[in-house]
Design a protein that fits this description.
mainly alpha, MetI-like fold, disordered N terminus, MetI-like_sf, Peptide ABC transporter permease, transmembrane helix
Amino acid sequence: MTDAPAVIATKTRVRWPLSLIVGASLTAVVLATALLALAWTPYDVEAVDIAAKLTAPSAAHPFGTDHFGRDVLSMIMAGAQNSLVVAFVAVGIGVVIGTPLGLAAAARGGWIDELVMRGNDLIFAFPALLLAVMITAVMGPGAINAIIAIGVFNIPVFTRVARGAAQGLWTREYVLAARTAGKSKALISVQHILPNLMSLLVVQAAIQFAVGIVAEAGLSYVGLGAQPPAPSWGRMLAEAQTMIGFAPWLAIMPGLAIFVTVLGLSLTGDGLRDLFDPRVRRER
């Protein structure tokens, strides 16, 4: 009597990339800080206390105070809201406008494709921050104009990503079958092409989110971003540059906030790319 062959059931588990775990954790901390600031900050971010100006980090003020006696920790917490909102909406503009343009260019080809791509080249002819400075200089400083300026640069980024990936998908068998069934190019783009681009768009959005944080800080640094009394990491750096010799915490703290946020988003984007890309994904 022979024993029946044992069937060993194996369960594959996705190995989460370390970069995704670290990046998502850092990003979660920043998001939690911004949400907490909606309801509570250690001090009123607009409260001026001249008697406590330029106080070094202490138990009462863990990140110190600025030249008006305002609590730096409270300002960084409130500034996180501004930076995240500007970057999020600007990336949203790029996704909502750029993705349909890329899908249309890939689906129609010809003069539509040429028109869309030449428009992209025109925008890409200017560095991102320089283009944002030009737009806000013309339209005036402010958070809304900063969103528009950063969003304009995001449009061609998502257009190129969507177009490049969609062109490869148009040769797949399921797309050819849909065309044979009589579906229009627009319907195929929505039903078959776009769902297969979502992972790529999510990865690109995370990367552009980090770029948006830096761009918003840069605009605020030169006075074209959010205006006082709204706290801004970039403006905090600009105000600290003349006092860095005797009050270095004024530059170190907002600089660290920008660094941690950008690092977290960049690592998240890299981790999502590794997770979604079958060529680098590892399972066990």
